[in-house]
Amino acid sequence: MSKVDLVRRPMPKQEPAERVRNFDEVALGYPAELAREEAARCLTCKKPGCVDGCPVGIDIPGFLGSVAAGDFGAAIRTVKQTNALPAVCGRVCPQEEQCERNCVLGKKGDPLAIGRLERFVADREAQEGPGQPPPLPPPNGRAIAVVGSGPAGITVAADLALRGYAVTMFEALHEAGGVLTYGIPEFRLPKAIVRREVDYVRSLGVELRLDFVVGKTRTIERLQESFDAIFVGAGAGLPWFLEIPGENLNGVYSANEYLTRCNLMRGFRFPAFDTPLKRSARVAVFGGGNVAMDSARTALRLGADEVHIVYRRSKAELPARAEEAENAEEEGVIFDYLTLPVRLIGERGWLTGIECRRMELGEPDASGRRRPVEIPGSEFVMAMDASVCAIGNSPNPLIPMTTPGLEVGKRGNIVADDDTGRTSRERVWAGGDVVTGAATVISAMGAGRRAARSIHEALSGQAAP
Amino acid sequence: MVTIVERRMIVPNVHLLTVAAPEVAESARPGNFIILRPDEQGERIPLTIADWDTAAGTVSSIFVQVGASTAKLARLKAGDTIPSYAGPLGNETEIANFGTVLLIGGCYGLGSLYPIARALTAAGNKVYAMIEARSSYLLYWQERLAAVVERLIVVTRDGSRGYKGHVTRLSEILALEKISPDRVIAHGCTFQMMTVAKETKPLGIKTIVSMNPIMIDGTGMCGVCRLTVAGQTKFACVDGPEFDGHEVDWEEFFARREGYSAEENEPLHRSGCASHF
Ligand SMILES: Cc1cc2nc3c(=O)[nH]c(=O)nc-3n(C[C@H](O)[C@H](O)[C@H](O)COP(=O)(O)OP(=O)(O)OC[C@H]3O[C@@H](n4cnc5c(N)ncnc54)[C@H](O)[C@@H]3O)c2cc1C
Ligand SMILES: Cc1cc2nc3c(=O)[nH]c(=O)nc-3n(C[C@H](O)[C@H](O)[C@H](O)COP(=O)(O)OP(=O)(O)OC[C@H]3O[C@@H](n4cnc5c(N)ncnc54)[C@H](O)[C@@H]3O)c2cc1C
Ligand code: SF4
Ligand code: SF4
Ligand code: FES
Fold this sequence. Notes:
Chain A is α/β, with parallel strands linked by helices. Chain A has helices spanning 16-19, 32-39, 49-53, 60-68, 72-80, 86-92, 105-108, 114-127, 151-161, 179-182, 191-203, 220-223, 255-262, 290-301, 322-331, 398-402, 433-436, 441-460; strands spanning 143-147, 166-170, 207-209, 229-232, 236-239, 252-254, 282-286, 306-310, 334-336, 339-347, 350-364, 370-374, 380-383, 386-389, 393-395, 428-430.
């Protein structure tokens, strides 16, 4: 046996100085030769830990073997058996905490670049034009309504369409894709990719109804008159704020507003598109997750001179994907760790500065992370003309508000069974962020997959394969 | 995508927009609004529903041409399509038998109050409507409103019809008209709604106003429509748009409404009241 290759092949990226001036994708993807070399590092483990780490259980050694052999068509077919959105997951999954964390190669060297290769095979397939949709079984006469066209809804719609159901997917906004469309920026997930995935689902016969706000345009109760089952994947809702003075000043954004203006409404192309987005000179982003990184990097690309991430814990606790925090740092985002905003200061209705307090790390808290403790008297002011609050959301409130008999948890989330997605209401299933609170693309898809199976079992009376 | 059934200027700068949207018509309730995009590059803008016809499957709004999006709308004609039209959004107006209700409207409020007047009258209230404009030629839908209320009271800034002046004369007009409302509902011009709330506060009359902040999604996702009511942050699209006018932080609201005014086109033509938008 040849020597184990412990070095991960680097993926080409746009140079930082270049990329902060455009909205094009930062990571450029492997060329075929590098992809095959990287895939060839796989040891084809008998008990592959990587597969256990993947929430949708992709046959990872299987598809890597095909890549190494240069059979990219076989590779993508293997991936698509369990993952409807490989081009998306390959880009945005927190791989280092999932599949790649469990890779044996990681014990001595670099874990296999599973996500990058998943992306590679998906992009490769796309280059060959729209493929043939898989053969569909004859219609089984049952109708399913899917509420929301994010990753959870897309997965349910695809899975059930492939089982012969007539699926209608209702989306409140004017474009499908959920957070993939309005939240995650173009430079990390090109919208053309999202559109391609949505087109694929439609090619399976799924009817997409945009600008249809379930609960308002029609209630769940009313939809139940014409649909045999309903899946609710309504995603995240109202943004949380820090609840400090000054948060209703102009120039103070929630990340949802900031990113929606830029992505969904194409604010970065104002005035070609009508929705404006202010060019701010100094921007502070509160939070340390992916949403905070996306907001900060968006601010840079919109022309800010200085962008700060203000995070109350230290670098070690940063919840964002390591790769994204690194990208942000390379691009010149300034990280103010152990810093807590305490007051937003304004003049004539507009933000002019933020007052912060320094923190130090104390005893570990319930989550096991060391709790930040305020240092008295350490207040200081930073001049800022915009701030973006990226500290999370509550689940979307519309469906719970308008659906009697739907049990809702303390945080406003829809209560649904973990294994099946069943809610307290007859013939209504739910999954994704509206159930769990803000999570990940792949976990929303996992929930969609389980719900689709449960819906099929309930409607057909048979166990799903 | 929806098709325009009618788009007509009904008084200078004020337009009626009727579209075919059967599902919205079926679910519409007084006080609801819709969000539309006039074209593929357009903003999402909210408009209150001024009427609907379930049988015909149509929904109408009254809009004032103030900036780019409403200018685009004003160029459309019957048979044209617009890419997005979503609704009905927001909570409906609370309809119950309150006794005597005074509706006060300016600008697009003359239209959006109409379904409220109809529903309140049907619920057994004595309903009065006070409508205000700069001059009599800017008034519209008077016959319609008159048909569903006890009495229509007209106020014009130039005195060309009805009382001369502004809603600041509210308590005086109430005395002259011998009306003592149990509830006031104001729609339309933000400045006028604030003025009404100030006038009714010392009189102790519960006053409902329909807030019109900047919005994007209208579904409780983006948070831009927030305002402070009774010291708490509220989101107009899901918690409102109607709130108790005595509890709204008006100063903050005006500051937030101006958030994008430098970027937006200068309003082409200001109709109605002094600080209309
Ligand atoms: C900026 C940002 C960056 C992120 N980065 C990552 C990342 O790198 N990796 C990762 O794994 N995850 C990331 N996430 C999280 C991930 O995007 C979400 O967990 C995931 O999208 C949740 O999917 P979902 O299908 O539950 O809901 P969503 O994607 O939120 O979709 C819900 C959809 O339902 C629609 N809807 C809501 N209410 C209604 C209604 N009443 N009627 C009709 N339609 C309705 C909404 O408009 C929306 O389109 C990020 C999130 C954000 C905001
Ligand atoms: C719940 C609600 C109901 C409304 N109902 C009506 C109605 O029935 N008829 C009507 O004529 N208008 C209504 N409005 C106001 C209407 O949405 C704005 O006039 C419209 O968005 C202006 O768009 P524009 O591009 O033409 O003007 P812009 O050039 O965008 O702006 C002109 C002025 O309008 C304000 N404005 C800008 N965008 C918005 C926005 N999204 N929401 C509110 N104000 C904004 C700005 O402060 C600016 O001063 C309503 C607003 C809300 C929130
Ligand atoms: S879907 Fe995500 S977790 Fe699964 S293999 Fe792909 S990148 Fe890894
Ligand atoms: S754990 Fe690593 S080496 Fe083993 S099969 Fe998975 S990817 Fe290959
Ligand atoms: S308009 Fe976005 S939350 Fe109300």
